[in-house]
Sequence to fold (262 residues):
Amino acid sequence: MAQRSRQRMAAGNWKMNTDYAEGRDLILQIIDGLQPTDVQVVLAPPFIQLRNADNLTRGVSNLNIAAQNCHQETHGAYTGEVSAAMVRSTGARYVILGHSERREYFGEDDELLSKKVQAALEQQLCPIFCCGEKLEEREADNHRATVEAQLEQGLFAAVPSEQWPQVTIAYEPVWAIGTGKTATPAQAQDMHSFIRSLVKKAYGEELAEQTTRLDGGSVKPANAADLFQQEDVDGGLVGGASLKAGDFIAIVKALEASLSEA
Ligand code: PGA
Fold:
């Protein structure tokens, strides 16, 4: 089989965790444990740490910073919000959009997310777009239809072909996020191959082959290697385990090891 040309990525979504000093220590430990690395490592600390995180990681190869969200407008009277342009000005290169917690707790729907994706791309930020079904949708065998609608309305509607190479997709079944339950490697592979077919339908085979797809939902050192061996899984979006330097480093090492097995 042809060598996979897609970029491999391990992204740590810190969510609303770590104060300034804790964030700095975590980044320094990760830099220490991971130099050099062959995969793309992305760290998503809270907004107020972005600038410092970028400073700490500047010049460190394959280590980039992401925001966990951005607003769809460039500026204005939106108290408490942070625009894509502001994120970009910190040096961050990525932004996570459409995370299930944003959808669930902040009412973000696919129409809004498509605007956020456009706002991010206008600022040369690379979106890591999250999709995934809830437990009841999986039990009703609606997981494919759910993910298809999320991608079509939230992502494909917003991204022209020429900007598609900036996009990373993260599939995270909601029932696996923060619950300790993981999709089996077979379930993950099934959905990532389905997502590849959707990208192919929308953007053609070549771009579909190049699209990095991350798996998420309770990724940890114990299950990372099995997930990363799946043909259509190019890495992970890691929540809880990204807050412990040792666990996150072990996950990145599992991804590096999967490179030689591909
Ligand atoms: P988890 O979170 O690894 O803690 O399940 C993943 C995510 O929400 O991105």
User: Anything to note?
Assistant: The beta strands are 9-13, 40-44, 63-67, 94-97, 126-131, 168-171, 213-216, 235-238. The chain has a mean pLDDT of 95.
